[in-house]
Description:
With 151 residues, the protein is α+β, with helices and mostly antiparallel strands. The chain has helices spanning 2-18, 22-29, 33-42, 45-48, 61-65, 69-77, 79-87, and strands spanning 54-59, 90-92, 103-106, 112-118, 121-124, 127-136, 139-144.
Amino acid sequence: MKRILTGISLALALGTAQAADIVDTAKSAGSFNTLVTAVQAAGLVETLKGPGPFTVFAPTDEAFAKIPKEKLDALLKDKAALTKVLTYHVVPGKVMAKDVKAGPVKTVEGSSLSVTTTGGNVAVDQANVIKTDIIADNGVIHVIDAVVMPK
């Protein structure tokens, strides 16, 4: 009986460990520290912890490092501009890699990302998608190698 209860406890623990929203999934990945800091600075944590679903094109820390430090620091201090940039990386709904099609895709920010698919590679605006289908309980994350800016 004890073995069964231990197995049930382990199953419950594993089940809850896998249920993570977009923000917690990004935090646990370890390569989105700047993105998580930006989401916090913009006051978007609760939104991205909400029911969604969301598709997030998430720039890595290396992608944010391509932005000159002064420009990034200024962006992090300008909540309105930061919100505009971050919501430009978010598409309503859960779009898995197999469902991505070339063309304009409306973002939460309001304008459209330009999605291109060439030779099996996918890009959004000028950023390459380098990893796909990181599942969260309220959507999916696709990793990109650059920060995209709304027009």
